[in-house]
Write a structure and sequence with these properties.
The complex is a heterotetramer, with two copies of chain A and two copies of chain B.
Chain A lengths: L1 E8 L11 E7 L13 H11 L9 E2 L2 E2 L3 E5 L2 E2 H4 L11 E6 L5
Parallel strand pairs in A: 1-7
Antiparallel strand pairs in A: 1-2, 3-4, 5-6, 5-7
Chain B lengths: L3 H4 L2 H6 L1 H4 L5 H9 L2 E5 L5 H11 L3 E5 L24 H12 L4 E5 L8 H6 L3 E4 L4 H14 L3 E7 L2 E7 L7 H4 L12 H4 L4 H19 L8 E6 L4 E6 L21 H10 L16
Parallel strand pairs in B: 1-2, 1-4, 2-3, 4-5
Antiparallel strand pairs in B: 5-6, 6-7, 7-8
Helix pairs in contact in B: 5-6, 5-11, 8-12
Classes of the chains: A alpha+beta, B alpha/beta.
Bound molecules: zinc ion (2 copies).
């Protein structure tokens, strides 16, 4: 079990009942395979889809990851730096999902 | 060696005195500005404030690219346009506003889309490119033109009450494709015509685009290269986050076996194959998100 | 009950359509804007962008207060003024720019300083006050006028490559004096004429002042009341910090035994006794800091 | 001894040889009176004046505190919240001094 702070913004909050912040959320560890007991970003994204997402999952997940056009930040840095899907989430991590904007 | 001050005419000394007084800025930075050409793609919510502040700062030349005309629904945020110029091409309207602020600035209005045909040539003729467009297809093409022409890109975006800004292809930092290798799928992109936008949102981002451009031209300060500004205007929350290093398998800027973009025709094919269309703002049919 | 849309004319519906599309904004917020009067004190680097974006957003009326005329050295940052209007009073020049963007907005240009004589009356006639001035003496007086008239204050400042912004006297938050009970000593204040200022710095802060004003009028979003934006444009660093609660011994807003400001004459005396003068930008003699 | 991160901005850096950041600065504890061994903000301000300030001390300190017109933040909040001069500085505190701006 890890406790994390989740955030959805840039318009993405509309998929989450217009809620931008989920503080101190308990995410249960994954149960399958070699990674039992830990929470990877892959697992967390799936858990968010099943438990927090209010509508249109195709606008949040795609091919087992987040949909292209969504930025993911782990503790205010691009999740690429941390290792994307394989990153093991730690207690009190701040994880943000932000829609990339194209308007002007 | 002639001091920089001597190179400025008296009218310029007075006009630019307030910015030349800034510590670390001074006449040498002003001279670089007076010698710079800036390409602004999009004469709308972002392009208007970016152009007006660059005109004020005293760049040598601004090239404006846009194919659209001034519409009533633009006026709430596109402050380079006025009621009396509704129906005129945006590049002509904004050119007039620029000349009003500073007649010493040369303006080249290009009434056209930014395309595979004109893109690299336009980018090649400037020192900095400002992406002030409104759709992902053009954003990929603008990025690729900057990489091919070797020019820094100041890229801004705005929607609803949110804004984003970064500097790409500059100072060994990543390009736009390094950050966004996969384009958003069809139906996931919201335009300002769909989702709306509050005027000050592109206003702030556009002015910040002018500032980052000035910093690149003058080499004063630390730009947003390698960083991304994420601004939530609803909560007044500003975050500047570190983004990843240039992607070694980037199809645009990696200059290795992974490079697949060698011309803007390649860029066009990429967009077509990914279903990205260079949409007109008022013709978009995508769902609101 | 008539829906809000019915209250808007067709020309307004089109003009404001992009902002009415925003989630949480909509026609009810637009109607509040169309019914609001905003007082802008200072028609310079901050006041120009603030006024233009509020005009675009469709407020009912803008009252502009400034005693100065348009000077060549203003043009790099005061984008509501143009070369052709040099020498004219700034309030007349900016009023013309506002009308060009949106003739439906009423403008009342007041060619005067903001003083103990006119301050409370001006503040009383508006819904939100924007401090876009350039010296501490006027800033204390504007604050006191807002406290006496019970109006929210959106206060911005810019110098060099730095900007600051907050909202005072709103939503049980502190007033300007709660944060700055003691004025800066003589000789420690730097004006833009001394220290210089880069155009986009007041540009961004002024546009943000328009945004905070829109948020107060429409009650959409979370304002900067109780918080302070501190922006370093040189490094592109933005910080929003929490400031202290209203000061129980504040001489302006505490409404208790510590209150000593009961009129703008008291405010004027405070400034005189602290050596604060309402300086003309071009006459300051203070040392650069 | 505490180690703190100091920052001077808003133009105040001009008094510090145009240096905005001093990372991991060692500040020795005060030696007098009842507060021996600790570092209060009052002591830190004095130490900064004597050890880091390059010019014109009258533009930084006044009457034993910082000059009016300078904001002090302790860990990104107004120092009023922490207790101003009496606050006891802790290891790795981020302390910022920022000149209040008045221009426009
Ligand atoms: Zn790349
Ligand atoms: Zn107060």
């Amino acid at each position: 079990m890890v406790r994390v702070n989740l955030e959805f913004s840039g318009g993405l909050e509309l998929l989450f009942d217009n809620r931008k912040e989920f503080k101190d959320v308990e995410v249960p560890p994954q149960k399958e395979g070699q990674e039992e007991g830990i929470v990877t970003m892959k697992h967390l994204i799936n858990w968010v889809k099943d438990n927090l997402l209010a509508e249109r999952p195709e606008l949040f997940v795609m091919n087992g990851s987040i949909r292209p056009g969504i930025l993911c930040l782990i503790n205010d840095s691009d999740w690429e730096i941390a290792g994307t899907l394989d990153y093991e989430v730690e207690d009190q991590d701040n994880i943000s999902f932000i829609s990339t904007l194209h308007g002007g | 060696k002639i001091p920089y001050e001597a190179a400025l005419e008296p009218s310029q000394l007075k006009r630019y005195s307030r910015q030349m007084l800034i510590h670390n800025f001074g006449p040498s930075a002003q001279s670089k500005l007076l010698d710079s050409t800036i390409l602004i793609i999009g004469a709308g919510g972002l392009g208007c404030p970016a152009a007006l502040y660059l005109a004020g700062a005293g760049v040598k030349k601004i090239i404006l690219v846009d194919h659209d005309v001034v519409d009533t629904s633009n006026l709430h945020r596109q402050i380079g346009h006025v009621e009396a110029r509704q129906g005129l091409p945006k590049v002509m309207s904004l050119a007039e506003a620029i000349q009003g602020v500073n007649h010493q600035v040369q303006v080249e209005p290009v009434l056209a889309k930014f395309t595979a045909e004109n893109g690299v040539e336009l980018a090649s003729r400037c020192d900095v490119v400002i992406d002030a467009t409104d759709n992902p297809a053009t954003r990929y093409m603008v990025n690729d033109a900057c990489v091919l022409a070797g020019k820094p890109l100041v890229s801004g975006a705005a929607l609803g009450m949110n804004g984003q800004l970064s500097v790409y292809n500059y100072n060994s930092g990543p390009c736009y494709r390094c950050l966004y290798p996969q384009p958003p799928p069809q139906g996931s992109v919201t335009s300002c015509a769909d989702g709306g936008v509050l005027g000050p949102i592109p206003g702030v981002i556009g002015v910040l685009q002018a500032l980052e451009t000035i910093k690149i031209v003058t080499q004063v300060g630390k730009t947003l290269s390698g960083r991304l500004l994420i601004w939530d205007g609803e909560d007044s929350r500003f975050r500047v986050v570190n983004v990843a290093e240039p992607r070694s398998e980037c199809c645009a800027c990696s200059r290795g076996e992974h490079q697949t973009i060698f011309s803007l025709q390649d860029s066009e094919e990429f967009c077509a194959c990914k279903g990205l269309v260079s949409m007109e703002t008022h013709q978009t049919q995508s769902k609101p998100l």
